[in-house]
Design goal:
Strand order of the largest sheet: 3-2-1-4-5-6-7
Strand content: 15-25%
CATH class: Alpha Beta
Radius of gyration: 16 Å
Structural class: alpha/beta
Number of helices: 6
CATH architecture: 3-Layer(aba) Sandwich
Length: 176
């Protein structure tokens, strides 16, 4: 297996705690903990509901290798360069878990990575997104037949939270 990067794009406190956490746990469980083979990075985008603690929460997840705060997002979106000038592997995937669905499309142009978008209510940019994981089958029915092969029902990621305690995240968000 060739070394890969998994770049997760997310934004607000809800997404970071209810989508990102179970996803990174599942990724490590399935792909292993060898960081030289699979590196997980999180880049946060601005969110009107942000608490300001999203980066700290994401950094607290042991499955995550590096996190970029939302304040540096626009530079990354436009240039493909992070504030800390991260290196990127030749192979990778961008996993969208919150924000604007256009973001992974634009970032994939810089990094050359394939894109996977998780969508609860609507899917966009069908021509440029490689795959969609959707909450419900009715989202597939709303898409042109030309693109339905790109959509797979993965269910409600929020339902995964029921098996996890949010107490640690709540404490992290309310720290001074």
């Amino acid at each position: 297996m060739q070394a890969i990067d998994i770049l997760i794009l997310s934004n607000g406190p809800g997404e970071v705690t209810t989508w990102v956490r179970p996803v990174v746990q599942a990724l490590r469980q399935q792909l292993g903990d060898d960081r030289s083979m699979v590196r997980i990075s999180i880049v946060l985008s601005p969110c009107p509901n942000a608490s300001g603690f999203e980066a700290a929460i994401a950094r607290s997840y042991p499955q995550v290798d590096r996190v970029q705060e939302a304040q540096h997002f626009w530079q990354f979106l436009l240039s493909g360069k992070t504030a800390e000038n991260w290196d990127w592997r030749t192979r990778g995937v961008i996993l969208f878990l919150g924000g604007d669905q256009l973001f992974p499309v634009l970032i994939s142009r810089h990094l050359g990575y394939r894109t996977v978008v998780y969508a609860e209510w609507e899917t966009r940019w069908h021509r440029w997104v490689d795959r969609f994981g959707v909450m419900k089958a009715d989202l597939i029915d709303r898409v042109s037949p030309k693109y339905t092969n790109k959509l797979t029902v993965v269910g409600d990621l929020m339902a995964e939270v029921a098996s996890h305690s949010l107490l640690a995240d709540k404490e992290q968000m309310t720290k001074d």
